């Protein structure tokens, strides 16, 4: 299971799905973050992180509600994603180096690169 676990705030009456999508780009465009992580519960965005704000931010009322989530949860997840951001930065650099080859039919030296990762945890919570 990912270390960014679903807060108990969602309840445990029925199964839910939890998915995270991480995207990292070498050239996202003017004013756009190069790294974004978005968390979904049952297809609804509930958290967001990007390389500009560098904070893990709640997006739904149920997760923003006072007492719904341990306040340390936001700080822990922010730290995890700041480290993850650095891993993606290094990985993108390695890809750029590997594809920056002279000769051959394919040269991606001047093309932007992008990663998209998905973490899917269907039926995360048990049915009671």
TrEMBL record:
Record localization: Membrane
SUPFAM superfamilies per the UniProt record, alphabetical: MHC antigen-recognition domain
Domain MHC class I-like antigen recognition-like residue range list: 15-104
Entry keyword set: Disulfide bond, Glycoprotein, Immunity, Membrane, MHC I, Signal, Transmembrane, Transmembrane helix
One cellular component term from this protein's GO annotations in UniProt: external side of plasma membrane
Name of the featured protein: MHC class I-like antigen recognition-like domain-containing protein
InterPro entries linked: MHC_class-I_related, MHC_I-like_Ag-recog, MHC_I-like_Ag-recog_sf, MHC_I/II-like_Ag-recog
Bilayer topology term: Single-pass type I membrane protein
Entry's Gene Ontology BP terms: antigen processing and presentation of peptide antigen via MHC class I; immune response
Native species: Meleagris gallopavo
One Pfam entry name: MHC_I
